[in-house]
Recover the amino acids of this structure.
């Protein structure tokens, strides 16, 4: 198999005069090498005045900080590279942009709150929870206003769900673009939510017979608004106030957000302040000009809410190359489906010619990411790594080319195509496509 | 039911001249009131220069921080009160002490990494992962030394386990002492670990036929050492390098710790640097003068490794009083067992005379905490709240008096007695005992 003949490489696409992106890719590659990582972490830590710590090699001879030093703890200075990253050229301004989850550095299925990807449209609202109110009005028997404390009196539930932006992997529609799983697939996180069923507050207000849709609105400067069909709202939507045990983070909608299991992240309204019940969808900006899928014939597919079955190998990947040479090697990744549980993940090391079933490890929960592993004995020859997920309803993840054949390349949303990483003999890994 | 006749109250015990503890209890109570909480959070936030944020009430008119502002995120300034706390009078020095998980502020089953309780004996070692080594020697065919990267090449697994200090609730042996679930039960946390089976590295070294015990040693200044029977080591112990998806925190043993599912936390050696295989236990300090249970006859019970079935109501509790008056009220708590899964939790509102089954919500995983709820319509009369857990092997949580009848009050370890909170008409809640 010749690399040259079968590849459409992200690396080959770096030669155009897009300096912003080239700089970004270069930084991504530098951050990818294990040796470079150590140096970067040391540099960051030294900049933060941590050089004394890093110079201590044998901690059996030092007394460290006591229990009063860190009332709220943070990661080791040696982990300073495990952060959300944004892409400067992607949007006009950071207040309406996205930062990406460092998937290549994580394991298991829980995304730590500190590195959950962010997407906001008017910056992070920093709301005082005691001043915040949620109003429910429109086609209801009794319009109601709730405080956070009011909501905490309803029966609570705890659910682990993935939240994926509809635009995740969106830049890959036109070919391998970004050299890092953080950037190709990092618009996803997976946390345990604590909250209440949306149904409880809707029933308290009393939905009139012609109430068929909700308009949900956020309390930030963008006043993000989406229409949600009443069936979904009554079925499994939640109003969440905690993530991974503690209060929602400001960038995730503190003090309360909507949870719309399995559906695109844009609908999970943050800083939730208003729910209006109506008899038809509202066709707001974020569900017409945005978050619809432009098809090859120029028409737009709408109401494509559910996230498709999808997977990606998180390590090895361009930011997490193989540094240990041949032999025992762990291939690890994530799989998820907006329909339910993942039933199977296959992994190929030869660009999709042959497949082996990966081992799914850890809790298998509906509409949560699943962690998979394939343990191989690498012979040191180049690998074309791919993963392919199947869910409990036998939905199967397609190739990118199969997707393009149906949907064209106009859209930036709902790309669940199979991802390929090329691992060279020296372990350096890059984003490619096989044809 | 007269409060006076049936109670042995923690409040009543505050009148002795232990100023250190009195100050602590007072602080605990002040932090407990919801109004006070808001004021405390605002105070802390203002001290941190966040007063501008707190003065903004309507975030629809402000652009907030962009996605480049917080590469690693932290909680809202309004959550500044959700922190680990330590008790100054408890130990001679903070480098050999404990900080407690704020259980009263958390929900679900995942403890966020930032507030997982700490217990260390020589301060927090801040080890450089690239310099760290794990040695395996003693009764093995081939002594081995592993780097962190070496360990990451073995097959990985992900498990959610509670880690409870054997001394959790230890101060309650002699009666209701501490006015807050953070302090009575906060030496526990529950995270998802990623790591490898300890068995893999032991098999790689090859255990000789007479190898029956392990000595495991930490790389900190206390060189914490414990003996572990080989059956447990080969059965389900892990070497973990991640918690809740990201690297272990320094205070939890970064870059690697032992995981000993269901057994007392002291055995979960942090900063793991050495494993020696031997033919008998070592009888180190931390398994003779400490972490044995002094019985009424003056003899010490040893090898009491497994944590017993236990539960506690986290809200309402002294630091989380009822502030909304009578009516719809959520009673919430945690239950766990070192033997396996929790099968049932009962809750009493009348000091153990009558019991109702609570609702267990969220994943039910072996040797993980379980979250339970009981939704009541509070009539505004005083409550004597208790919870009683049962595990899948029909172990049942005992009363404190039943425990004392067998074990006396000399020990500070393995107290899994039923906890009682007294909720007054005004919602103020305190630690009491019913007799």
């Amino acid at each position: 198999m010749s690399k040259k003949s079968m590849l459409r490489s992200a690396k080959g696409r770096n030669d155009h005069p897009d300096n912003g992106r080239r700089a970004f890719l270069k930084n991504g590659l530098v951050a990818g090498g294990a040796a470079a990582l150590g140096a970067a972490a040391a540099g960051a830590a030294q900049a933060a005045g941590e050089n004394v710590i890093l110079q201590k090699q044998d901690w059996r001879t030092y007394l460290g900080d006591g229990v009063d030093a860190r009332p709220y703890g943070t990661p080791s200075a040696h982990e300073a590279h495990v952060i959300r990253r944004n892409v400067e050229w992607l949007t006009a301004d950071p207040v309406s942009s996205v930062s990406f989850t460092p998937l290549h550095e994580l394991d298991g299925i829980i995304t730590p709150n500190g590195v959950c990807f962010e997407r906001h449209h008017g910056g992070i609202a920093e709301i005082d929870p005691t001043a915040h109110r949620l109003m429910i009005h429109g086609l209801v028997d009794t319009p109601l206003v709730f405080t956070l404390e009011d909501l905490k009196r309803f029966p609570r539930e705890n659910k682990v769900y993935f939240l994926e932006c509809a635009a995740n992997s969106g830049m890959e529609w036109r070919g391998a673009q970004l050299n890092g799983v953080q950037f190709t697939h990092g618009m996803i996180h997976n946390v345990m939510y604590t909250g209440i069923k949306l149904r409880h507050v809707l029933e308290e207000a009393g939905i009139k017979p012609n109430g068929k849709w909700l308009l949900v609105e956020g309390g930030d400067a963008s006043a993000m608004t989406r229409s949600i069909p009443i069936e979904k709202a009554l079925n499994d939507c939640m109003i969440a106030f905690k993530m991974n045990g503690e209060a929602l983070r400001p960038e995730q909608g503190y003090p309360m957000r909507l949870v719309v299991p399995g559906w695109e992240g844009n609908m999970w309204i943050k800083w939730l302040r208003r729910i209006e019940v109506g008899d038809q969808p509202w066709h707001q900006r974020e569900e017409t000009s945005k978050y619809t899928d432009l098809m090859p014939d120029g028409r737009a597919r709408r109401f494509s809410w559910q996230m498709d079955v999808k997977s990606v190998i998180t390590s090895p990947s361009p930011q997490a190359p193989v540094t240990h040479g041949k032999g025992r090697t762990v291939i690890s990744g994530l799989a998820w489906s907006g329909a339910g549980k993942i039933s199977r993940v296959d992994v190929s090391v030869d660009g999709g010619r042959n497949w082996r079933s990966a081992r799914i490890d850890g809790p298998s929960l509906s509409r949560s990411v699943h962690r998979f592993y394939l343990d191989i004995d690498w012979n040191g020859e180049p690998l074309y790594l791919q993963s392919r997920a199947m869910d409990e309803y036998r939905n199967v993840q397609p190739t990118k080319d199969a997707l393009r054949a149906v949907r064209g390349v106009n859209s930036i949303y709902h790309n669940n195509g199979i991802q390929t990483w090329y691992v060279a003999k020296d372990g350096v890994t890059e984003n490619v496509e096989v044809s």
